Automatic annotation (TrEMBL):
Keywords: 4Fe-4S, Electron transport, Iron, Iron-sulfur, Metal-binding, Oxidoreductase, Pyruvate, Transport
Domain Pyruvate flavodoxin/ferredoxin oxidoreductase pyrimidine binding: 31-258
Listed InterPro entries: PFOR_II (IPR033412), Pyruvate:ferred/Flavod_OxRd (IPR050722), Pyrv_Fd/Flavodoxin_OxRdtase_N (IPR002880), THDP-binding (IPR029061), TPP_enzyme_TPP-bd (IPR011766), Transketo_C/PFOR_II (IPR009014)
Name of this chain's protein: Pyruvate synthase
Length: 769
């Protein structure tokens, strides 16, 4: 890990400190490892994912005792954290953007029941459309969840605030979970010089060696408690009042803690960071990373004789109303920059809270200008700071605000440059070739499929155009196109977030030649269910007659990159409702689109960025999820597995999938695809690797047709069996498993592969299993 580089020793404040050169994510992880939390429940999402990655790497090397629990989604990770905090230990988490929104139901539960923890919100744009860069649109959703919120303008602040936040959360006068907010990619990934405590014991001396006693603990058998009871109105309002009072007390407690911290370290974080505000006549209010840039602008304006100043909060919950009113009492005009909009609210959350603060404190004179800026990670430069000051200077000179609210940095669309269609729609007659025939066999209850030689299917147009941005050797698109060769006629596809989605839809271009929808990991199956049912209902009502649509529309949801973890619940729901659609999972054995973290499809022992290999850990610690068998248990008409290394088998199964999806209900398919970048394999060897996976029985090829299992390729019968260890040796991510010190883990994996294969053979031989 980068933070284990040689450090320069240095003394500042009362404790020994040392200098590191690291990013915000690394410093969040470093603070967490020094605190040595009990539990971290997490789920990967950019740009916060690195926090768990760095902690896992340190865990593999034995540097801390934090138990990292990979959840099935952010909602699950929040539940893990809630349960762990109710059990009396110290709890940590990190998330971003839509991941935070997915867990937001749990945020008031945690604060309303007064269980402390610390969570890093690495701020990022909330989709849709999808953007993974930094702004504050997720942060503004946090304002009403009952969590105190501290702000981090740089990696140094991320480190310091993570330590301060725990002490604040556990203080008896507060006892609330605390959110530590930093800017995605601006702060999370940019490396800066940071001072840290040289010794863990000094950190523990500050925050306390263990959580303070005196509050409920579900593990105290001598004092059983009920957590989160049902409350009627009088009790509920009293509970909320007590929580509200705790929030306001957090301001005074924070002031005390930050002074203690300043005395120890020499670094101070007053609630408001005021820069040259003592006699300022114009000011700009910004948060986090942009607030550092604006200080240079203040100096430049001061050199021109303009009395400029800047305000940046180190805490926004509780909102520092009195301090802001005091700082602005002599200011003629202030421009408030919000890195998110409160749509329809005539400004972002911060400007409206500042206006309320001024009004409440009796200031009717300071003019306030609202500008929404920097959305989607749009860079903020000194020239932008000058423009924000320009708005305030003009208002001060005129005595009024000409345009109270607007966006800054947006560009008007040019009708002459509107995106034009690059690819013409595919012709139905080119897609409906008639080369593939599917007929029901009334005697067996199965389908008979005839496919021509694959070379004759090459004339079918590709559903996804060349030109996408996938990594060299990526198996997603070869696998998808092979599957689509077996699909006749028109399709509508929905893609979960993931590599296949991200690399094919960089606005204003799209590689998709068929109609395409995107929704997030957790909700794709439900979304496509709605599309399917709307198609059939509008068709029934005659509302689509003018489009001359064929009756053989096929609806396909493409998922992968762990989408069958966070999206498993809605997929099962869609299966139980039996919508006429196909769910196709490309299995690359991890969350590859966020940097190769472990997913539940990652096999035991495999190395990922959150299942590292070190002296204390050798890859993933639990077995992979068998999604095909899970979906088969829902009794849908057809389930299959496939691989591009056996193309005829996959095309035939695609044709069957289409027939069942058009005639009977939901189909689930799973294809193993290679990911050379994260499997640490040569990009030319992908087909050979997935072939070895099939022949080792790790990824057997079979189908479950109307409840009856049929193995479609048996390597034992073909004399092509490959040892599991031989397959593992083809990838850099698994070569460690073949070493003598990992013999026990390898044996465990081999036994599980054999157990699943033998169970599958038993089902193949007995139609009642």
């Amino acid at each position: 890990m980068a933070i284990d580089i040689k450090r320069e020793e240095q003394n500042t404040g009362k404790v020994e400190q040392r200098v590191v050169y690291e990013s915000g994510n690394e410093m969040a992880a470093y603070a967490a490892h020094q605190i040595n939390y009990h539990i971290m429940g997490y789920f990967p999402i950019s740009p916060s994912t690195e926090v768990a990655q760095f902690l896992d790497l340190m865990k593999a090397n034995g540097q801390h005792d934090v138990v990292l629990i990979p959840a099935d989604g952010e909602h699950g990770s929040a539940g893990v954290c809630y349960g762990a905090s109710a059990a009396g230990g110290r709890v940590f988490n990190a998330t971003s953007a839509n991941g935070y929104l997915y867990m937001i139901e749990q945020m008031p539960v945690q604060s309303g029941t007064r269980f402390p923890m610390v969570m890093n919100l690495v701020c990022r744009s909330v989709s849709g459309p999808l953007d993974i860069h930094g702004d504050h649109s997720d942060l503004y959703y946090a304002l009403n969840t009952g969590w105190p919120i501290v702000m981090c303008r740089d990696p140094q602040a991320v480190y310091d605030m993570n330590i301060i936040a725990l002490k604040l959360a556990e203080d008896p006068e507060v006892r609330l979970p605390v959110l530590v907010a930093s800017d995605g990619y601006f702060t999370s990934h940019q490396k800066r010089r940071v001072m840290t405590f040289a010794h863990r014991q000094d950190v523990l001396n500050f925050v306390g060696a263990k959580p303070p006693g005196g509050y409920p603990d579900v593990l105290d058998r001598n004092n059983p408690i009920t957590v989160g009871p049902y409350m009627n109105e009088p009790d509920y309002i009293n509970n909320c009042y007590q929580q509200s009072m705790a929030m306001y007390r957090a301001e005074d407690v924070y002031e005390r803690i930050r002074k203690e911290y300043a005395e120890l370290t020499g670094r101070d974080y007053p609630i408001l960071d005021l820069y040259r505000m003592e006699d300022a006549e114009v000011a700009v209010f910004l948060m986090n990373s942009a607030s550092e840039i604006i200080k240079d602008v203040v100096d430049q304006l001061r050199a021109q004789g303009i009395k400029a100043g800047s305000i940046a909060p180190n805490m926004i919950r509780p909102f520092p109303q009195k301090q802001i009113a005091e700082a602005l009492k002599k200011v003629k005009a202030v421009t408030v920059g919000d890195r998110a909009d409160s749509y329809g609210g005539h400004g972002g959350n911060m400007v409206n809270e500042i206006k309320a603060a001024l009004f409440t404190q009796g200031n009717r004179d300071t003019l306030v200008i609202s500008r929404v800026y920097g959305l989607g990670g749009k860079d903020f430069y000194a020239e932008d700071g000058h423009n924000l000051f320009k708005f305030a200077i003009e208002a001060a000179e005129k005595g009024y605000v000409e345009k109270p609210f607007d966006y800054y940095g947006h560009t008007p669309g040019d009708p002459a440059k509107a995106p034009k269609r690059v690819l013409n729609p595919m012709k139905y007659e080119d897609l409906k070739t008639g080369l593939i025939t599917v007929t029901p066999d009334t005697a067996s209850g199965k389908l008979n499929v005839r496919i021509p030689p694959l070379r004759s299917l090459t004339k079918k147009p590709k559903r996804i155009a060349p030109g996408h941005g996938a990594c060299p050797g990526c198996g997603i698109f070869s696998g998808l196109e092979l599957f689509f060769k077996g699909i006749e006629g028109d399709i509508v596809t929905l893609f979960h977030t993931g590599c296949a989605m991200v690399v094919t839809t960089g606005y204003p271009y799209s590689a998709h030649k068929a109609t395409y929808i995107h929704n997030l990991f957790q909700n794709g199956a439900a979304t496509l269910s709605g599309t399917v049912e709307m198609f059939w209902e509008r068709k029934r009502r005659g509302e689509l007659d003018h489009l001359n649509l064929p009756d053989d529309f096929t609806f396909v949801m493409v998922t992968g990159d762990g989408g069958m973890d966070i999206g498993m619940g809605p997929a099962i729901g869609a299966a139980l409702r039996n919508h006429k659609m196909i769910i196709l999972e490309y299995d690359n054995e991890g969350y590859m689109n966020t940097g190769a973290q472990l997913s539940y499809s990652t096999p035991i022992g495999h190395r990922t960025s959150t299942s590292n290999v070190g002296k204390k850990q050798a890859g993933k610690l639990f077995h992979h999820k068998d999604t095909a068998q899970i979906m088969a248990a829902t009794n849908i008409p057809y389930v299959f597995t496939g691989s591009e290394s056996y193309p005829q088998d996959l095309v035939k199964k695609a044709a069957k999938a289409q027939w069942y999806a058009q005639n009977e209900g939901l189909v689930y398919g799973k294809i193993l695809i290679t990911c050379p970048l994260n499997w640490l394999s040569d990009d030319k060897e992908g087909t050979d690797i997935v072939d070895a996976a099939v022949n080792s029985n790790f990824f057997p090829l079979y189908e479950v047709e109307r409840g009856i299992t049929n193995i479609t390729y048996n390597p034992e019968e073909k004399n092509k069996s490959v040892a599991v260890a031989e397959w593992l040796g083809t990838m850099g991510k698994t070569k460690h498993m073949t070493k003598p010190e990992n013999a026990e883990a390898l044996a465990d994996f081999e036994q599980e592969v054999a157990r699943r294969w033998n169970r599958l053979k038993a089902k193949h031989e007995n139609p009642y299993l």
